[in-house]
Structures are given as structure tokens and as C-alpha cells.
């Protein structure tokens, strides 16, 4: 259960279930070259929670047609990239309606010494987590 393969399967299932009735098309890419990368329990938990919040935000607020998820191997670790083709928002002037989602995602990334980035403009919002 400590491999990226197991985490990727959980992610794929969660995202597919979330967008199933929304009309959003899911594009999930996790090459087999990443399957053998090992992650600690804390890494798996925080990566999944950042992922879950990101996918939920895209499905609920972005008004997108497509949701793209990519897990890739990098020199030392992995990168998780989630993007949509929705309406976007101003990441520098954003007030949450009912939570601390963006702040929590940054905190979770810091807990596992990962780098969290979010960029948004009309037509595309991208969240990237470098682990």
C-alpha cells in the first residue's frame, strides 16, 4: 500500500466517482514508470487530501468540461498536476465562501516538504504539487 500505484488507483476512483454525474470528462494519466515509487504514510495521506480538495473545487466551482490529472516521476519524487478548463479565479484576491481549502492545501504540502503551486486564469486553473 505504500506505492504510488495504490495511491493513483484511489485517486482515479475518487475522481471518477465525483465527476460521474456532472458531465465533466475525466482525463487521468499515471504512467507505469511511477508505480514503484514508495511514499510514507504521511505523504500518501497529505497528497490524497490535497488531491481530493483540488478535484472537489474543480467539480464544484470551476464550471469546467474537462478535468485533467497527471502523476509523473521526477528526479527525486513525484509531481501531481491537476488542471481544468473552467472559469478560473483570482488566486491573489480570493475569499473562501465556506472553508480554508487553499490554506489547508498549502499547509499539507509543507507538512511533507512538498511545493504547492496554484495558477488560474479564465479557461484554466492548475494546481501542482511537487513531492
Q: Would you write up a description of this structure?
A:
The chain has 131 residues and is an alpha+beta fold. Helix content is 37%, strand content 27%. The chain contains 3 helices and 5 strands. It has helices spanning 4-19, 41-61, 101-111, and strands spanning 25-29, 66-74, 77-84, 115-121, 124-130. Strands 1-2-3-5-4 form a 5-stranded mixed β-sheet, covered by helices on one side. α2 (41-61) runs antiparallel to α3. The mean pLDDT is 92.
Protein traits:
single chain, 131 residues, alpha+beta, five-stranded mixed β-sheet, 3 helices, globular
Short précis:
The protein has three helices and five strands. The chain has 131 residues and is an alpha+beta fold.
- Beta-strand residue percentage: 25-35%
Largest sheet: 5 strands, mixed
Task: Label the overall shape.
Answer: globular
Uncertain segments: none
Let me know the number of strands: 5
What's the mean pLDDT score? 92
**Spatial sequence of strands, sheet with the most strands:** 1-2-3-5-4
Rg over C-alpha atoms, rounded to the nearest angstrom = 14 Å
Question: What class would the helix/strand composition place it in?
Answer: alpha+beta
Helix/strand order: HEHEEHEE
Percent range of helical residues: 25-40%
Question: What's the helix count?
Answer: 3
Amino acid at each position: 500500500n505504500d506505492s504510488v500505484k495504490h495511491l493513483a488507483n484511489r485517486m482515479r476512483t475518487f475522481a471518477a466517482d465525483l465527476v460521474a454525474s456532472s458531465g465533466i470528462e475525466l482525463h487521468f494519466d499515471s504512467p507505469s514508470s511511477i508505480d514503484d515509487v514508495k511514499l510514507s504514510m504521511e505523504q500518501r495521506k497529505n497528497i490524497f487530501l490535497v488531491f481530493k480538495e483540488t478535484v472537489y473545487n474543480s467539480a464544484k466551482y470551476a464550471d469546467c468540461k474537462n478535468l485533467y490529472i497527471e502523476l509523473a516521476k521526477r528526479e527525486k519524487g513525484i509531481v501531481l498536476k491537476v488542471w481544468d478548463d473552467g472559469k478560473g479565479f483570482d488566486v491573489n484576491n480570493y475569499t473562501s465562501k465556506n472553508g480554508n481549502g487553499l490554506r489547508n492545501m498549502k499547509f499539507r504540502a509543507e507538512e511533507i516538504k512538498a511545493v504547492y503551486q496554484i495558477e488560474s486564469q479564465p479557461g484554466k486553473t492548475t494546481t501542482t504539487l511537487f513531492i
